[in-house]
Write a structure and sequence with these properties.
The complex is a heterotrimer of chains A (212), B (218) and C (40). Chain A has 212 residues and is mostly helical. Chain A is built from eight helices and no strands. In chain A, 44% of the residues are buried. Chains in contact: A-B, A-C.
């Protein structure tokens, strides 16, 4: 597990260097686009953590596996943090680029809804003292809330939005400059390791508490 | 307990408690009157549908507080859990009774709303249609939240925190429906979506709510 | 030092990185310190 921590740090440093120093200046947006290197990974993680949680939730409901329960209990705090960061960094990027801190377009609104769903899950976790029962209740909530995920992903396709449409996960392949893409992927990997590192740590804490 | 008996039982219970049942309706009327009271008249036309939808949502949330509360406190829910009839069916009819008792009266209040908000009949009927299509899904989502938070302290607040993010898409679609019709465009797309969600939630909702109840009652 | 200026958008870019670092650091801190036990 410590290697996760080192992997996070390694990729993080590489990604930051690449993103801040090596990647070229964007033709349209100038230097400010570099916020992308913290905004996009955070947003990706906000969705990824929720997907992982949904899988765990299914396992918890059907098989009641303890590991899945712990993972489900430990994840939403990180998911919520990533969602919060995605919204805040997005807002900071939006002001110079679009001239506004916020807009009620489909993607921003559905990401905000995602944050509220994470918070509701965390609220449930806090309200139920018995951990196993809490996990099962959270599992139901997670599964019901997962309908929001496709809405977020496809919101930029289904509605005309302020937010930029997909430039990486597209059928034609990424349309972004290679140097930028590398930096982006490095940061995304870094955030992923971060999530696994910390969630493992939190799970370990939960197990220790249970054993005590 | 057979399904029919349980349904009649729910209705009788709601009727016996008609004063409590009327409370969300009064709440709806009072809040709905606030908007025309404070907003300038020329904003009312654009404001009416959103304000009425939010008020309906709040009224539904209020009514949900009582949905499972007494059943849980009296442990009547244990009887339901162990009865031979599938719990999902019992939940389904209980929700139907709930909808009839709490939400149907709101439709009866709509003409009055038309008067307060100066709404032409046509907008009012589109609004009514959007409410008809949207409230079942809201009720199912809210009932699920109620089942998950049943018996917890602060259950009422949790209920709202859980329901509101899930309810936002419904609100968005319903209001887009009203919006489209106001600009003269066809509102079929949003309406169909609301209808589809209503069908899906009413068909699988009771099963999910039944399992949520089981989980809560452990 | 035009690098720090970020083409004039510094006031947006650096806080974005800053708050990301802050939140991530807080989470690390929370994960590695012992939780308070809950006594009813």
């Amino acid at each position: 597990m410590p290697w996760c921590g080192w992997a996070f740090a390694l990729f993080g440093i590489a990604g930051l260097y690449w993103g801040l120093a090596l990647a070229p200046t964007d033709a349209v947006q100038g230097e400010a686009y570099r916020i992308m290197f913290v905004h996009v990974p955070a947003a990706w993680m906000s969705l990824m953590v929720y997907s992982v949680m949904t899988c765990c939730a299914i396992v918890v409901i059907i098989w009641r596996t303890k590991v899945a329960e712990y993972w489900l209990l430990a994840s939403p705090a990180h998911g919520a943090s990533f969602t919060f960061l995605a919204l805040v960094t997005g807002s900071l990027w939006g002001k110079p680029m679009w001239g506004t801190w916020w807009a009620w377009d489909a993607r921003l609104t559905s990401e905000l809804i995602l944050l509220f769903i994470y918070l509701a899950i965390l609220a449930m976790k806090g309200a139920i003292p018995d951990q196993r029962k809490a996990a099962r209740v959270m599992a139901m909530l997670t599964i019901v809330g997962s309908v929001n995920l496709p809405i977020i992903k496809f919101s930029v396709d289904w509605w005309t939005t302020l937010h930029q449409p997909a430039s990486i996960f597209r059928s034609g392949g990424p349309s972004i400059a290679p140097m930028m893409l590398t930096a982006l992927l490095l940061m995304a990997l870094s955030y992923t390791f971060y999530y696994f590192w910390l969630t493992l740590q939190n799970v370990r804490k939960l197990i220790d508490r249970r054993a005590a | 307990m057979t399904v029919q008996r349980y349904f009649l039982f729910c209705l009788k219970l709601l009727f016996r408690q008609r004063r409590e049942v009327a409370l969300p309706l009064f709440f709806f009327l009072i809040i709905a009157s606030l908007f025309p009271l404070v907003f300038p008249a020329k904003l009312l036309a654009t404001l009416a549908a959103p304000a009425l939808w939010i008020t309906t949502l709040l009224a539904i949330l209020l009514s949900l507080n009582n949905l499972f509360r007494e059943d849980v406190e009296d442990e009547f829910v244990l009887q339901l859990l162990t009865s031979p009839t599938p719990l999902s069916l019992l939940v389904a009819v209980k929700l139907l009774a709930h909808w009839l008792a709490y939400i149907l009266p709101l439709f009866i209040a709509l003409p009055l709303m038309g008067l307060w908000y100066n709404l032409p009949t046509e907008s009012l009927s589109v609004l009514a249609l959007s409410l008809l299509l949207g409230t079942p899904t809201l009720l199912i989502l809210g009932a699920l939240a109620a089942a998950l938070s049943a018996g917890l302290k602060q259950g009422g607040t949790l209920l709202m925190l859980i329901t509101l993010p899930l309810a936002m898409p419904i609100l968005l679609f319903a209001l887009s429906m009203v919006d489209m019709s106001a600009s003269g465009l066809s509102y079929a797309a949003a309406g169909d979506f609301l209808f589809a969600m209503a069908v899906v939630s009413v068909s699988i909702g009771p099963y999910v709510i039944a399992s949520a109840l089981r989980i809560s009652m452990e | 030092m035009s690098y720090w200026e970020m083409g004039g958008y510094a006031v947006y870019v650096w806080p974005a990185y800053g708050i990301s670092l802050l939140v991530l650091a807080l989470n690390i801190f929370a994960a590695f310190t012992p939780d308070k036990p809950d006594d009813q």
